[in-house]
Design goal:
320 residues, alpha/beta, TIM Barrel, Non-ribosomal Peptide Synthetase Peptidyl Carrier Protein, Chain A, 2 domains, nine-stranded parallel β-sheet, two-stranded antiparallel sheet, 47% helix, binds flavin mononucleotide
């Protein structure tokens, strides 16, 4: 799959996830062969105001390209300004969020709310495409609600103003994360967006799901969200399957603990001990999920504030 001049091979990669795809996790994903990574979603307004926490989300220095910076907002001019700042900070691709379902975002006409205002959605894309020299992509949900499926039509209009890839999460805004993603909408969007690549998203949990999504929808790439939490191996396993035809087994408990420790160390190095340890709690719970005694381990980790103490808990758990 090509986005501009970037070859995304194999075409399986991680979704943007707020509170999850920070720099530490992006580096872990890269180690596992994920060929494209996204930042967490970043507010155009906060970025243009120079909000310090927001600027930290934009730190892509030293990462392997391509790194897509995802922006959300409602005003074409502010989005264009934010996009220029993101490119100056090193963004390889600008991705526009047209799918976030959270009330505090949609009430500002941002995120999924743009699915109800196509002229505004197209105007934002148009301005951003004109403002930056890098590829601009859009990630959207299928529509606002059942009976109001808009992704195929919106994709066609976005392609007409120069958007270079479209991601479709096969749920409506009203579904949030409930129910099942409807992959038929992805298939319908493929037809409307041609020749621009469509990236399918929603309910890919196992390597086999990703392969099936490509076959069933004709999409050019597959974006994996919740299926890669505590599970960056999904990318290395998919890569091995594509190159050798064989799917490696899932990681052993010892491999999971070792990866958790390496991820923790990176987070602490990048964010400092207090924040690093705290913000790793979710990731550590995901790495441990399904392992014997995981619930008890999680409780102990959540009571711990120092790097050394978390390392001790995890190392003691490791089978000898
Ligand atoms: C914790 C979390 C945070 C998310 N944050 C974002 C975000 O910042 N931007 C975005 O476009 N989608 C975000 N999403 C949606 C995912 O990118 C993806 O579209 C959704 O999870 C469906 O894919 P999945 O079934 O593979 O998880 C988030 C999802 C989760 C679970």
């Amino acid at each position: 799959m090509l986005i501009g001049t970037y070859a995304i091979t194999p075409p399986f990669f991680a979704a943007p996830m707020a509170g999850v795809t920070d720099k530490a996790f992006r580096l872990v994903l890269r180690d596992h062969g994920c060929p494209l990574v996204y930042t967490e979603m970043i507010s155009d307004k906060a970025l243009t105001y120079g909000n310090r926490n927001t600027l930290a989300l934009l730190d892509v220095i030293g990462e392997v390209e391509p790194v897509a910076v995802q922006l959300f907002g409602s005003e074409p001019e502010t989005m264009a300004k934010a996009a220029r700042l993101a490119v100056a900070a090193g963004a390889s691709i600008i991705d526009l969020n047209m799918g976030c379902p959270v009330p505090k975002v949609v009430k500002n006409n941002e995120g999924a709310s743009l699915l109800k205002d196509l002229p505004r959605a197209v105007a934002i894309a148009d301005r951003v495409v004109a403002a930056v020299p890098v590829p601009v992509t859009v990630k959207m949900r299928a529509g606002w609600a059942a009976g109001r499926i808009i992704a195929p039509e919106l994709a066609g209009r976005l392609v007409a103003v120069g958007v270079q890839a479209i991601t479709v999460h096969g749920r409506t805004r009203d579904q949030f994360y409930a129910g099942q993603a409807d992959w038929r909408v992805i298939r319908e969007t493929v037809a409307q967006a041609a020749p621009v690549p469509v990236i399918g998203n929603g309910d890919v949990w196992e390597p086999a799901d990703a392969v099936r999504m490509l076959a069933e929808t004709g999409c050019a790439g597959v974006m994996i969200g919740r299926g890669c939490l505590g599970n960056p191996w999904i990318f290395s396993r998919l890569k091995a399957r594509v190159t050798s035809g064989c799917l490696p087994p899932p990681p052993t408990p010892a491999e999971r603990i070792r990866q958790a420790l390496a991820h923790l160390e990176r987070a602490v190095t990048l964010k400092g001990e207090e924040r690093g340890v705290k913000e790793m709690r979710g990731h550590l719970a995901w790495y441990l999920k399904g392992m014997p005694g995981a619930a008890r381990l999680r409780v102990r980790i959540n009571q711990t504030r120092t790097f050394r103490a978390v390392v001790d808990i995890l190392e003691n758990y490791l089978p000898n």
